[in-house]
Amino acid sequence: MRGPLAPSHVPIAKSRGERFDDLVLDAVDRLKPRWGKQLAAVQFAVEEVPPAADLSDGPGLLDGEPIPFGRSEPASGKRPAVVVVYRRPLEARARDREQLGALVHDTVVEQVAGLLGLSPETVDPGYEGED
Q1: Which of 4, 13, 39, 37 is nearest to 25 (CA)?
Q2: Which residues does 104 contact at the CB level (< 8 Å), separation at least 6?
Q3: Label partner for 81 (CA 20 to 30 A): which of 4, 88, 111, 117?
């Protein structure tokens, strides 16, 4: 049998990457009622892994340098502010889909907080931080 196993409009037909993108969009949507004006000019993106430049050389990772889950870059000139969430490190850390959703949300909250110069708890009072 060739072709899709499920119609394209049902959730099971989405790829792992598309489902992850949806988790990021859900996290952003949860922040919009309170921070919509500040987030209007922010671009949100998903990358598979952090760039090599953002990682310490081998032993640094063993010394407690965590692999980043995301990064934020403030607006500069005509370039808008950007929040990037790294898919593979978050998927590797999560035990299940529910925990993955919580980790994605916390990562988005942390990066938005960094852009706004606020604490994550101020951005989202439900922020839970590290497990």
Answers
A1: 39
A2: 20, 23, 24, 26, 27, 85, 90
A3: 88
